[in-house]
Amino acid sequence: MDPIAFDNSYARLPDRFYARQEPEPVAEPGPIRVNVELATALGIDLEWLDSDAGIAMVAGNALPPGAEPIATAYAGHQFGGFNPQLGDGRAVLLGEVVAPDGRRFDLQLKGSGPTPWSRGGDGRSPLGPVLREYIVSEAMHRLGVPTTRSLAAATTGEIVARDRFLPGAVLARVASSHIRIGTFQYYAARKDTEALRLLADHVIERHYPQAANTGNPVLALLEGVISRQAQLIAQWQSLGFIHGVMNTDNMLICGETIDYGPCAFMDTFNPEQVYSSIDHNGRYAYRSQPGIAHWNLSCLAQALLPLLDEDPESAVALAQQAIDAFPDQFLRANAQGIARKLGLRELGLEESAEQDTALVEDLWQLMAEHRLDFTLAFRRLADLAHERTDNEQSVANLFEFPEALHPWLERWRLRMTQETSTSEERQALMYRANPVFIPRNHLVEAAIAAATDSNDLSVFHQLVEVLANPWEYRSELALYATPPKPEQVVQQTFCGT
Ligand code: AMP
Ligand code: MG
To answer: What is the pTM of this model?
Structure first.
């Protein structure tokens, strides 16, 4: 039996969807990590993946049977400016894995050498960005956020030249698919309606099968993407996650988070927070993420116009109506998210609507004013939902609300009395809505520094293992829950290029 069960539907699309491109072999493949849980779920032969043959596959030195490597074409708006031709410049899609449960996933190598879309780039990735993506994408998955995942990573034994010389690595990435808003934009920009149609059909069959049974399947597809993105961005907001490069080529049609370049989880709450070193105007700041998603989705709607209706005016009307639904959908998902974080069944029911809105708004305001740690403030709130003396989950020794928050805490406690659940039940739910371990930037940086500067992967492995259970606190892991000291605060993050 083949170690991976491939069935490559994207490679069966016409030539103008991709370039056939084999990964470029590297000097000396070395193991970094294999994701046992994911490999098992995908039905991939674990023993093989963990062997020299598996590592050679991850590094791009050996093609597994059934793989049909391609670099896919896409376009995209980068920081608002349209680039009609981006494409996989440092990645190849090996093929689609069909898991034992029938689900289909892309298996892509990132950092696997140049392609026709490299635009002068080397097609490679340094070790640091590979480790960052491994850590953060797997953490996001464990936090319950739809995301691309990391199947394995390997070193290349080669040096990559950036602002300094760095060890090279390759990431084997898994996604429901890598089809982006920018993939549709690529064909829309070329007025290739036939390709748009083929792509829409492909995506409907793969990700939105129920859309096929509606009167206007492409409209149902657009509505489906809008709804998934509204849910996704609400999840990001509820965790203090900042993506950093929400370009339209970095937004997937399947609704999974992709591209962990300059991303970061906030430590101190600040709605204006930006990390990316290239985001000079704060375009992709925390508070701007829902608005940017809305804008990106309108680019998708525009690309789909020729398929929405034969009559251009009707097509625009349909697209507009679909797009206009986003803000409400986001606000509703966001309200549900914050309600869960506060231990409330729902926000803003009837007579308490205005009060609830004020309760939430005031909390954000106070958190920003007093520079509270986003993650620990909510986690501490969960502690306070039900007082017990023997609470092993308590983060009281890491965080305490300042006096200035006490009146707000009193209002919150009063609001709790309107809930029908017991305080114990509420606390249990709050511990599942407010993680204690997130991939804090300074921890990610420390893991990267140990690997890059001292050839020590143990810090990386430990961090991945702690983040595999973000909900349960253990005091011996306090360091992983502790915010950075002033000198450890990471101010800027960089693209993985
Ligand atoms: P990203 O910033 O990761 O979303 O990448 C934007 C575009 O630049 C994509 O088309 C990438 O394939 C391309 N790209 C990024 N880094 C490299 C590289 N080192 N070599 C070639 N292409 C790259
Ligand atoms: Mg990208």
So the answer is: 0.97
